[in-house]
Each structure stands twice: as C-alpha cells, then as structure tokens.
Amino acid sequence: MHSAAYFVSAIITSAVLLQVSSVDAIISLYGETIEVPCNKGAAMSEKPLLIKWKYDKSDGSPGDILTKASDPEEANIQATNNYKDRVSIAPNASLLIANATLDDKKTFTCMVVTMGDVKEYPVSIEVQKRPLPPQIRDKAKELENGKLTTLGECIAQDAYPPAEVIWSKDGLPLVDDGKTIMVTMDKDVDPATGLATTSSKLQYRAGKGDVGSEFTCTVKHSLGPDQTSDPQTFSIHYPTENVNLHVVAKGHIKEGDNVTLRCKADGNPPPTSFNFLLKGQKETVVGSDTYTLVGVTRDTTGEYKCSLVDDDNMQDAKNISVNYLDVSLVPSGNIVKTVGESLPVTVQKNGSGEVKVSWTKDNGKLEKQPKFDSLKYVDAGYYVCDFSVAGIKQSRSFQLLVQGKPSIQRISKDRSEDGQHKVLTCEVEGFPKPSVQWSVNGTNEESSYVNGWLTHKITVVPTGNLTVTCSASNELGEDVKSINVSSLFEEKEKLGEGKEDDGDDQAKLIVGIVIGLILAAAVVGLVYWVYMKKSKQGSWKTGEKESGTSEESKKLEENNHKAEV
Ligand SMILES: *[C@@H]1O[C@H](CO)[C@@H](O)[C@H](O)[C@H]1NC(C)=O
Ligand SMILES: *[C@@H]1O[C@H](CO)[C@@H](O)[C@H](O)[C@H]1NC(C)=O
Ligand SMILES: *[C@@H]1O[C@H](CO)[C@@H](O)[C@H](O)[C@H]1NC(C)=O
Ligand SMILES: *[C@@H]1O[C@H](CO)[C@@H](O)[C@H](O)[C@H]1NC(C)=O
Ligand SMILES: *[C@@H]1O[C@H](CO)[C@@H](O)[C@H](O)[C@H]1NC(C)=O
Ligand SMILES: *[C@@H]1O[C@H](CO)[C@@H](O)[C@H](O)[C@H]1NC(C)=O
Ligand SMILES: *[C@@H]1O[C@H](CO)[C@@H](O)[C@H](O)[C@H]1NC(C)=O
Ligand SMILES: *[C@@H]1O[C@H](CO)[C@@H](O)[C@H](O)[C@H]1NC(C)=O
C-alpha cells in the first residue's frame, strides 16, 4: 500500500506538468479547528489517485503533512512535529487542524494527482483571536477637583492582532491632550501563545461638571463588534464655594411656629458642621445642616446667618420676620342691656401688617362694625368680630340680650273667616317674653315671638258689648290696653289709644250721672212743687225725656247705625 504512494510521489517530485492556482486566504479563530479547503471545496471531476497536504516551512522547504490515496481510502500522516496529533482530512479533501494557534499562520497546499495531471491549490491561513471583554482595574475611589488622578486601567486580554482600547466619557471618546486627559497604552505579548494584552491607563483632571459623568472603556477588534465595559462614576471632591441659608417654613411665619434654618454648602463631600448666627449669638451644629427655632415670637424677627465652621467668610444671611396679631373687643361674653340704652363697642388691633376686620351677627355678614346708640330688641344677637393678618386669624365675640318691660303697641279686632267670631290681637314689645292675659275667655290662642315682638291672638264669641282688656307682663313690668267689642258684627276697627279714651269716658259718665242726679233732684223738687200747686188743680204732665247720659246713648245709636249699613 505504501508502494503506490511512493510511486506517485516520485512522479510528482519530478513532474513537469505541475499546475499551481493562485493563493486563497482564510482567517481562522484561535483555539478552534482550522478547515483548509482543497480547491475551495469544488467537486473533483475525476476521482484523484492521490491527495497530499503540505505546507511551506519557514526556510522555504516543503513540510509534508498527510496523504490520502484512492485505495485504500485512509490518510497517511507524514508530519512528525505538532501537526502529527492535530491534523485530519475530511471526505471532501479539506485539511482539518485542531486547536488553532498563531503558529498555524502558514500557506498550506493541497496537491491533487489524477491520471495525467497534478494540480496544486495553496491556501494561506491566518489565525486571529478576539479579546476577552474589557476589564477596568485600579479604579480610583474618588477624584479631586482639578487634580490629575489615575481613574483606572482598562485591560483587553488575549487578542490577535492586538485590540485597540478607547476611553469615553458620557459616550464621547477621550483624547489625550497632555493636560486634562492622559492615556498610557501598553501592549504585552504572551511568549507562549503570542496573544497580546492591551492595557490603557487613563489619567484625568476632573472638574465639578464631572459629578455623575459615566466613564466607559471600549475595546475594538477586527473580529466582531466593539465590547464596552460597564459605566463607572466617580465622586468628585471639591471645596465649598457658596453657602446658602434656607428658611424652612410653611407660608407666612407667625408666632408659635417652628422655623427651621437649613445651611447648604456646595462643596463635595458636603460639610457636616455649621455655625448658625442667631441675631449675633453663635450656635455650632455638628452632624447636621439644620437649626430649629421652636415657638418663634415677634422678638425672633431679625437677621440670621450661617457659615462654615472652618471659614467664617463662607456665609449667607436671611431676614426672618415673624407675624403677630394682638386684638381685643369690648364688650365680651354675655351682655344684658335695657332697650333704649346705648352700648359702646371698642375694637383694638395691633398686627405685623394691616389687620383685616370683619363682623358677623348670628352668622350673617355685617357691612360694618355695629353701633348701638339706642338699643332695640332686634339688636339682640351673637356678634363675632374676625381679625386676620398674614395667615393669622383671631376672633372675638359677645352675646347681646336687650330687655325691656312689655309695651302694648297695638290692640285690634277682626271678624273671623266664618263671620261668627271675633279675632282679637294684642301686639306687645318686650323681653324676656311677656305673658299675655285677656279679660275674656277665648279659643284658638295663637302667639308668635320674634325679636322681642309678641303677637297674641284669641278668638271670642261676644255675648254682649264688652270692653276687653289685654294685659302683658314680664319680670320687668306690665302694660294693659282695652278695646270695645260689640255683640254685633262691626267693620274692622283698630284702636291705638283705647285706655285713655276709656278713662275720659268714665269721667264723662260720672259727670253725666252727677248732673243727672242734680237734674233728677231738681225735677223731683219741681214735680213736688207742681204737685203741691196742682193738688188744688188735680192734673200734671210727665216729661218725655228720661234722665241719664244722653251723650252715651247718642254714641251707641251711631254705632248701631254703622253696623246696620
Ligand atoms: C468539507 O467537509 C467538512 C466536514 O465534513 C465540512 O465541514 C466543510 O464545510 C466541507 N467544506 C467544503 C468547502 O465543502
Ligand atoms: C486541543 O486542546 C484541548 C484543550 O485546550 C485539549 O483538551 C485537546 O486534547 C487538544 N486537542 C488536540 C488534538 O491537541
Ligand atoms: C414645634 O416643635 C416642638 C418640639 O419639637 C413641638 O412640640 C411642637 O408641636 C412644634 N410646633 C409646631 C407648631 O409644629
Ligand atoms: C435684613 O434687614 C436689614 C435691615 O432692614 C438689612 O440691613 C439687611 O441687609 C437685611 N439682610 C438681608 C439678608 O436681607
Ligand atoms: C403693637 O405691637 C408692637 C409689638 O409688640 C409694639 O411695639 C407696638 O407698640 C404696638 N402698637 C400699639 C399701637 O399697641
Ligand atoms: C272663663 O272660664 C273659666 C272656666 O273655664 C271661668 O271660671 C271664668 O269665670 C271665665 N271667665 C270669664 C271672664 O268669663
Ligand atoms: C267703650 O265703651 C264705653 C261705653 O260702653 C265708652 O265709654 C268708651 O269710650 C269706649 N271706648 C272706646 C275705646 O271706644
Ligand atoms: C250694644 O251697642 C249697640 C250700639 O253700639 C246697641 O245697639 C246694642 O243694643 C247694644 N247691645 C247690648 C246688649 O247692650
């Protein structure tokens, strides 16, 4: 079996008809199996007698790898070096080399021997490797404002050809400018594998603007897409340049509020201690940036400052103004006054601004402050005075009662709706509520009492001509008035001054009776005299008119006529 191969190879070495095609180039991946195709894998027109794979040694001499004859179809490995265990041939004549290394960068040639032809197909192989994902080492803990600091070192490991490393800040590449950005590249080749490790050290002069900036490192390689590290952020140290004092309060500051002073410095890390100057008095606060004024008063008003503990000049000031409101109202509480009296109302107010004053009486708004020169029953009520200034509200109040003895304002009579009765109405002013008494018994008693005005009604059936009396009383006194009610139904009649008239009429009645008695006595005397005289004559004549109150009769007659109309 070997004899045939040797025979063929003897022909080949002496061959004159050798044909060599142009060189193909293939890139293989490090560590994987290299497949070197023979004639680009094209199908052979004729079954070859022999296929031989060889390579160019560095000195130019050929290095045999393997041969495969058509019969027996078994590869014969000639290589004695490290290819011995790594090579094999595929059915389609491709040479397979396991575990590619950089040393496999060679030109391999496939020689195909057919019955009258020998062809050679050289393929140049290059082995490459993609780097491992980038790693950032020696990362800086923090950056000092304006100071060139090594931010970190980015490593792209085991690549061929060597990888390129680029630093970026917030997605924009950082280019070495020799001042704020300095990038030091280093390349290290592993002598055993020939793979390169690229490292890039970034030195950076951070500014305050770099707070929150994201630094990344990107590795570029011919094999595959860019690989980017996780973003890194750095805390940046810088000294305080500004101090700000904030007054923390809800809306207007008023007496009794708690007011918090907060001191803010823009340095990083922020200062942890501050001096608070409270109207000249110094308080040092450690481990906090606030100072609380508890329960402020109007005396708290003034200028407040805060500063850095180690630098008094780094300070800020704010004025605090505390609003206040002092009010008083005279009278207050429960006030009882008699109708007709006066009641002075005095309001005093003193606030940190213009004080707004408004009044209500029994929850109804009043246009202006009430004034009581002569109290009326309607003035009684619950008075509230509301004061407000800059978010402070206060109110004062008094309850006013107006009292007075009853005074009958009106007494009247009306025909009832059914025409059978009379409705008598007595209207009385007074407080406390007067009680009303009529001189007759009535039905359907009705009474209402509003603002010291009592209206009392009864329904009566007059059995004759009556003088009806309404008497009203409370603990302060009594008032009485009368009205004449006839048994006949008269037209509506109102009498305002009935009582005085009654007195007048009684006087007239008495005078009338006295005159009547005198006249009667005179008449009796005259009659006796005439009788004595006529007794001798025997006849006398009686007067037609009766003695008595002629005036009263006339009046009653008039009334009778009116009712009949
Ligand atoms: C040759 O065969 C191998 C394995 O049998 C296969 O992976 C490869 O794709 C083939 N090559 C060509 C060029 O057809
Ligand atoms: C290829 O390398 C792997 C590990 O790197 C090893 O286990 C294997 O035996 C090697 N194969 C050959 C044919 O050398
Ligand atoms: C003010 O602070 C004191 C003590 O912290 C607290 O008791 C009081 O309720 C606070 N007053 C107000 C109006 O928040
Ligand atoms: C506080 O008020 C005083 C007097 O009105 C004034 O001189 C001072 O400048 C004010 N301070 C601030 C911080 O406004
Ligand atoms: C108002 O109150 C302030 C502060 O208590 C005081 O200085 C001022 O004299 C008062 N004014 C009047 C009119 O009472
Ligand atoms: C009113 O009625 C009562 C009994 O109901 C009686 O005692 C009284 O005399 C009556 N008064 C008048 C004025 O008629
Ligand atoms: C009521 O009637 C009497 C006589 O009965 C009379 O004297 C008096 O003037 C009358 N009063 C009124 C208010 O009419
Ligand atoms: C009541 O007075 C009227 C006149 O005003 C008279 O006509 C009538 O007779 C009187 N009735 C009684 C019962 O006295």
Automatic annotation (TrEMBL):
Record has tRNA processing as a keyword: no
Compartments it resides in: Cell membrane; Cell projection, Axon; Cell projection, Dendrite
Key words, A-Z: Adaptive immunity, Cell adhesion, Cell membrane, Cell projection, Disulfide bond, Glycoprotein, Immunity, Immunoglobulin domain, Membrane, Repeat, Signal, Transmembrane, Transmembrane helix
This protein's GO CC annotations: axon; dendrite; plasma membrane
Record-linked InterPro entries: CD80_C2-set, Ig-like_dom, Ig-like_dom_sf, Ig-like_fold, Ig/MHC_CS, Ig_sub, Ig_sub2, Ig_V-set
Record GO biological process: adaptive immune response; cell adhesion
Region (Disordered): 536-565
Leader sequence segment: 1-25
Membrane topology summary: Single-pass type I membrane protein
Classification via PROSITE patterns: IG_LIKE (PS50835), IG_MHC (PS00290)
Residue spans of biased composition, Basic and acidic residues class: 542-565
Keyword Protein biosynthesis on entry: no
Name this protein carries in UniProt: Ig-like domain-containing protein
Source species of the chain: Aldrovandia affinis
Taxonomic path: Eukaryota, Metazoa, Chordata, Craniata, Vertebrata
